[in-house]
Specification:
- This protein is α/β, with parallel strands linked by helices.
- It has a single domain (5-173, 201-229), classed as Rossmann fold, CATH 3.40.50.
- It is 41% helix and 18% strand.
- It contains nine helices and seven strands; from the N terminus they run βαββαβαβααβαααβα.
- It has a seven-stranded parallel β-sheet, with helices on both faces.
- Strand 4, helix 3 and strand 5 (119-128) form a beta-alpha-beta unit.
- Helix 1 packs across helix 8, helix 2 runs parallel beside helix 3 and helix 3 (94-115) packs parallel to helix 4.
- The chain starts with a strand and ends with a helix.
- 42% of the residues are buried.
């Protein structure tokens, strides 16, 4: 029996990279996509890195073709590529709005559509969504569209034996915060407000994805696993 195979979009940094490293350490053959090859430094050399913009259908075609030739089939498709554009409605122009939906929604939809022939019975699809709504209306709308999409696909693909779930990270210490001007001190302060007393790490999310991809989660589909250190408990109660 060949080792399992995983394709991870947005896999060259943060949560995607941590998941690639974890799965590789557990015997998976792994391919990741990303928009910046410079970010892949440090990934195990066995992990194939393919440059692909999640909003570009030709890039998606190229990535899936590379996955077909390099991996043959997929046991896990981790749809992790995404962007957030925090801010009030007044600060969101058409280009920013379109990018949010093109990358988060369109990119995930068409990556799954094109990769579907590589997913056989027992395969797992995992979307990265997000926990909380305090990130701006446009980002919340784009991320929020993924949950009904995930649940609909879970019903559609269940007869094929393909499970579809989501993981929703809370406050996670990833490079995206630095690019948004968030300092270490700010992140540590926010982390103290989390019930478990800290910001999460990309490895926390990687473990959740690995679980959803495993046989241990073989009876779980259409679900959203919130990994947030307890953020939003009162809102969900």
């Amino acid at each position: 029996m060949s080792s399992p195979a995983a394709l991870i979009t947005g896999g060259t940094s943060g949560i995607g990279r941590a998941t690639a490293e974890l799965l590789h350490s557990r015997g998976y053959r792994v391919m990741v996509t990303g928009v910046d090859h410079a970010a892949d430094a440090g990934l195990p050399e066995e992990v194939l890195v393919v440059r692909a913009d999640a909003r570009s259908l030709p890039d998606i075609d190229h990535a899936v073709d590379r996955a077909r030739r390099h991996l043959g089939s997929l046991d896990l498709l981790f749809l992790n590529a995404g962007v957030s554009r925090p801010g009030p409605i007044e600060s969101t122009d058409e280009d920013a709005f379109d990018a949010l939906f093109d990358i988060n929604v369109k990119g995930s939809f068409f990556t799954l559509r094109k990769a579907l022939p590589l997913l056989g019975e027992g395969a797992s699809v995992v979307f990265t969504v997000g926990a909380g709504e305090g990130v701006g209306a446009a980002t919340t709308a784009a991320k929020g569209a993924l949950l009904p999409l995930m649940r609909s696909l879970a019903l559609e693909l269940a007869p094929r034996g393909i499970r579809v779930n989501a993981v929703s990270p809370g406050l996670i210490d990833t490079p995206v915060y630095g690019r948004m001007g968030v300092t270490r001190e700010m992140l540590d302060t926010w982390g103290k407000e989390v019930p478990l007393g800290r910001a999460g790490t990309p490895a926390d999310i990687a473990e959740a994805v690995a679980y959803l991809a495993s046989d241990a989660a073989g009876y779980i589909t259409g679900d959203n696993l919130v990994v947030s250190g307890g953020m939003g408990i009162h809102a969900r109660a």
